[in-house]
Amino acid sequence: MPSHPALRHSAGVSAPASPFASPAARRAIVAVLLVVAATIVFALIAGRYARDQARATLAVEVERTARQQLRLLDSELRKFRLLPIVLREFAELRPALTSGGGAAATRLDGKLKLLAERTGAPVIYLIDRNGLAVAASNAAEPDSFAGQRYDFRPYFLKARRDGAAEYFAIGTTSHRPGLFLARRIGSPARPDGVIVVKMEFDGLARAWRGDAGSTVLTDATGVSVVASDPADRFTTMRPLTPAERQVIRADRQFADQPLPLSRLREGTALRTAMASATLPAPLPGWRLLHVEPLAPALRSADAWSHTATLSFALIAAGLAGAWLWRTSRGERTAARREALEAEIAERTVDLRLANDRLRIEIAERMAADQRFRAAREELAQANRLGSLGQITAGIAHEINQPVATIRTLAENGRLFLDRARPERTAENLATIAALTERIGSIVSEMRRFARRGSRSLGPIPLAEVIEGTMLLVGDRLRAAGIALDLPDPDDLPMVVAGRVRLEQVLVNLLTNAVDALAGHAAPRVALIVSAGPDTVGLTVADNGPGIAADRECEIFTPFVTGRPDGLGLGLGIARDIVVEFGGTLDLVPSPLGGAAFRVILPRACDSSAA
């Protein structure tokens, strides 16, 4: 039977190709599936990680808050625990106990009231050996403790027996809860009474409310005695046994409070949804519990994980797109590889050349620094020689006088020998020896000052530095008629410096003072030494015209000077020298009314003190 033409036509046409048959389409599908799978895995991991981190961070924050609140509690306890110890030695307690009241108890009431007001204690009261309160800081108030019996209170019984007691309870008179701190008065064999200070925690609870979450302080039986939320106070962290409730009722510790189970106890739904920290309190068996809800932290963690997941999905999609784009381009040409390799080689050569240039520049900078240091040392040496030239005339005069005196004494000594007076000749020779020793000291100081100073630092006596400086510039000060105030050399400490360079600083400062005092009617210069534990201050002050206000900021700048013939280098060199010593040189107000420069140097250990 012949086939239908339409059937013959359809049989001769091939089916259309599937759109997923190409390699690019398959790679795209694989990429999409990988991105979706990776995003789901990342979302699960990120969510769990964020929640775990939120719980851990909140746990750390809760414990930190709990420790902070515990320190506040400990601070309050330390303050109030001292009161009964101090009051136990109060001289007026025993008269009030032995008199059984009367004027002695009345006087004690007033003093206890004043002490309570100053320390912030709610009430302080004195109980005799039989449990009767004979004096109290609130004796003048309607709810006075004076005249009340407390022989049933455990803190009274324990303090009378053991010497001290700390007991939390609701007051039978004031009906206010608090911690009763008691100390025995008298010997264990014959107690005279008990002094009691009551401490209330309302202020502490208010301070705790400033922190997030809730805080409770529980006693040894698990009863919440202090809480930031009033609803949590006088609740229990565990069911109390009938025996425990019987003891509490017998002692009237919590009055008629029902003491229900706390909403914050272990195992409750509320407690499960919170982060908590429990720390031992500074009272036997007491504990501090701080809790904060987990929900806000978990919400923040979920928001972070959602944002991170979205970011990851976008990045993964971008990477997948980049991968598809790269794989669709085919392999790279050898020319691009060669070009890249050539560029890398060129960059390597450039880096090597730049590194070589950097080494050369570093070497040049080091050489320049050495040249700068050498030039600065040459400049300091030139400054010393210049200063020596200025004071040479004065030193020559200082030497000429002893030389003339030596000549006169020698001639007189010859006459005394001719006259057979050897004792006078010996006196002249001794004087000649002393004068020659002084001339030698002056010449030695000039030679030391002219030499290039050593750059090494060490402990030197400040008295010797000042003495050497005076040998160099003393005659110039005397010739100018300047009154000089010097410190007592026996009281001067040791400093860390170089002797020659420190003398150069003092010579510069004293020379500047002499120049500033030219023409002054009553010139005066003072060297003032102030020693501290680690530093020594040396101030050179004068009563001259001082430094102009517009020059104070640039006085240490090189080539800035107030003298027509000055170079303006002395103060700059002096400051550089002091800085090398590890000290400072500054312009300060003069105690004499003129100008003053203060040198601060490191203090050296005194060998005599060591």
Largest sheet, in brief, is:
5 strands, antiparallel
> How many strands in all?
16
Order of SSEs = HHHHEEHEEEHEEHHEEHHHEHEEHEEHEE
- Estimate the mean pLDDT confidence: 82
CATH superfamily of the domain at 376-602: Histidine kinase-like ATPase, C-terminal domain
Quaternary form:
single chain
Low-confidence stretches: 1-14
CATH architecture of the domain at 376-602: 2-Layer Sandwich
Instruction: Tell me the name of the CATH class of the domain at 376-602.
Output: Alpha Beta
Strand order of the largest sheet: 2-1-5-4-3
Structure description:
The structure is a single chain. With 610 residues, this protein is of the alpha+beta class. Among the domains are: 88-200, Beta-Lactamase (2-Layer Sandwich); 376-602, Histidine kinase-like ATPase, C-terminal domain (Heat Shock Protein 90). Helices cover 53% and strands 16% of the residues. It is built from 14 helices and 16 strands. The protein has helices spanning 5-11, 23-87, 93-99, 102-119, 154-162, 202-209, 242-251, 269-272, 295-329, 334-418, 422-450, 462-479, 499-516, 570-580, and strands at 123-128, 133-136, 164-170, 177-186, 191-199, 214-218, 224-227, 274-280, 287-293, 458-461, 483-485, 494-497, 524-531, 535-542, 584-589, 595-602. The strands form 4 sheets. Strands 2-1-5-4-3 form a 5-stranded antiparallel beta sheet, sandwiched between helices. The chain has a 5-stranded mixed beta sheet with strand order 11-13-14-16-15. A hairpin with a 4-residue loop joins β1 and β2. α3 (93-99) runs antiparallel to α4 and α10 (334-418) runs antiparallel to α11 (422-450). The chain is flat. 28% of the residues are buried. Mean pLDDT is 82; it is low at 1-14.
